[in-house]
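Our platform keeps sequence and structure together, in a single record for each protein. Nothing more is needed to write down the fold, since each code stands for a local backbone conformation. An entry from our holdings is shown next, in its original layout:
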Amino acid sequence: MKNILVPVGSSPNSISNLQYAIDLAESISANVYVVSVFQELSKVGGLSKVNAILKEESENRLDEVLSQVDKKGVQVIAHPVKGEVLEGIGRISKQVPIDLMVLSPRSNSIKEEVYLGKTSGKLLKQTNIPILVVPEGGKFQPPKTMLMAFKNGTFERDELLEAVRQFKNSFGTEVNVLHVETPESTEEMKNVTDNLKALQTTYTQVEAATTFQGVIEYFQQYNPDMLCVIRRKRGFFKKLWEKNEILKKEFYTSKPLLVLPVQE
């Protein structure tokens, strides 16, 4: 894990979120890329001056956030990026191999009842970069324990587990695996590949209606420092991901949430 990406918006959590990423990067000798995305307007009708102002505001926002964090000797590269947020981050990831994206849950949302705001939700749902959703105002602490929940135990691509491997190797994190068997599970899904077995500290197989329900039922029992789930085209957050914004009454965790790339 060498390159960590931190999108910065207007959220007051941008500073604590960036500091969290820097503290993590310092611990694993990684670089941090900070981006502020601005939407460029049409250049017809003399709007080029407006675009220049938008870019300048984006640069000023980056300078403001960077001035309030302790870089701790970590290489922090800041860039304003034009375009829609998904498009902009997609372009960055083509130029720099991003190993992890650190997000604030509510991004620009000020609604207290919201867990995952529209921008963070869109990035989590529509990109395939490993994502760490950091609780608001969270300070980095090496996770001693991780609860990793999934339905499909077959990880054919070893790189899908790289973020988990990094936490285990760097911090000695205990990886407690919760393998949830649902009515949709196939025999292949019930297997566990050797690359995951090499990472797990404990293994528990349970039955539940969904992976989401399994996590809800067993989270308090494990009380982990970090929760890890896997993106699937139809899996965790299946119903919630029909929209980008997720309310706290639908799902909420006060612990960092690590979301791994799609298996399928």
Q: What stands out?
A: Residues 72 and 249 are 37 Å apart (CA to CA).
